[in-house]
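subagent[fold] <- orchestrator: predict structure for attached chain, return C-alpha cells only, no commentary.
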Amino acid sequence: MAPAIIRAGSLPQERRIPLLQKLSRILREIISVPDMPQVASRPAGILVACLLLATLSSGSTFPGVMPPPGSSDGHVLRQVVITLDDLPKTMGEESLGSATMVTDATLAALSKHEVPALGFVIGNKVFIKNEVDARLDLLRRWVAAGHELGNHSFSHPSFQKMGLIPYEDDVLRGDLAPRLIMAETERPVRYFRHPYNQTGPSSEVKAEFRAFMAARGTIIAPFTVEHADYLYNLLWVKAREIGDEKQAERIRAAYMAHLDTAFDFAEELALDTFGDPIPQVFLIHTNDINARSLDAILTRLEDRGYRFISMDQAMKHPAYATPDTYVGGNGISWLHRWRYSLDLPDRLRQEPDPPGWIIKAWRAAQQQAEGD
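subagent[fold] -> orchestrator:
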C-alpha cells in the first residue's frame, strides 16, 4: 500500500482546486509576514503546506507518511489518544475521598487496556488547604503508572473574558503542580490545554499566547472528538443521589450510545477533510460517570478497531501540522478548526448532539442549580 495522508487522486477536481488556492495563500502568509511570531510550529507549517501543495498538484500520494498500521487480516487499525481533563477530579463532588475514588477507577481502567494517557491538571484542585500533599500524591500515581501530566491552568478561566497578561499568569500558576510531579522523573510539562478550549479572543492575542507557550517549550493540545461527558455526568450523579438507579442506568446507556455517534462523525469528518483516517484525540473528564464507565468506553473503542497511542505519536501525523486560524468563543474541535483554515465547508452544525431528553433534563438541572 502506498503511504499517504491524502490520496489526492481520490479527491475530485472541484475539491483539489480550492485546497490548492487556500494552501498557497497560507504558505505565502507564513513566509511573507515579517513580524510573525517565531513559534516552533512555523517550520512545520511551511513544510506541511509545501508537501500538500506538491501532493494535490500532482494527484499523487503524500510522500513519506506511513498509513495507519494494518491488522493481520489486512484491515486498517484506527488510532486514538486518550486525554483526561481536570485532574485530580473535575467539578462537582471534589472531596479528597471522591478524588481518590475517581483516581483509583480511572488508573485501573487505563492499566487494563494499556493506555498511555495524558492528564491535564487544574492547579486549584490540588492546592487545597490541609490536602496538598495527598492531592499531589494522586498526581504522582498517574506518573508512576506511565502517564503524562499537562497543564490545564490554575483556575480554569475563560480566555474570552480575561486579558492576555492575567491569563498567562493563571497558566503559569497552573503549571506548578504538574511540573513539580513530572520533574521527579526528570520530565518536562510539554502540553497545555485551554480551559473550555477557548484559544484566544482575537488572532493577535491567540498568536501572542501561542508564542508565549512555545518559548516555554509547551504545545497547545488539540482534540478531535468529545461527547459531552460533563452533561451526562451531572444527570447521572443527580439520579444516583436520589437513589434512582434505573434512571442512572438509562442515562449511562445513552452516554455509551453517544460515544459511537460522536466517533462516527469524527471519523467521517476526518475522511472528508484529509481523504484518509487520522489519529483521533479523545477528550473526556475525570468525573464520576467516567470512573464508572471508562473500562466500557475503552472496550467499545477497541471493538471499533482502535489502538491507543500517545499524544506524541498522534502529533507526528501531518494533519496535526495544519494551521489553526479559527477565532471564536466556541471550544470547537480541531477538525472544525482545520476545515476553517483550509476554507472547507463549515460542518459544525452537523456535530451530533445528545438525545433531546438528555438536553432537556440537563437544562432543567442547570436552572434548578441557578435558583438554589
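orchestrator: received. Logging for downstream: The chain has two domains: 8-58, 78-323+331-346. The radius of gyration is 21 Å.
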